Amino acid sequence: MVGIHILKHRYNCSDDRAVEMLHENAYWQCFCGFNTFQGGQILDATSMVKFRNRIGTEGMKRIEAVLLGAWSEMGLVKTRCVAVDTTP
Prior knowledge:
Order of helices and strands: HHHH
Radius of gyration: 14 Å
């Protein structure tokens, strides 16, 4: 779920479009942890909303902090703050 949220924000798309891309794009599936291409329905867009609701704003902030730290160590970002949109 974290992987698809990263891709969603990276490509600035809706939950519906992110799920659609996950279903048809082997690279997105690999990024999200699948070892082989998954045909058929993997998840529904409502699962993304439920995930965000379940972890809440604090959960999203914790995920962002871990990612920001890792990306900073790799030299991929040079910022200290990332804005997160947690609206469903």
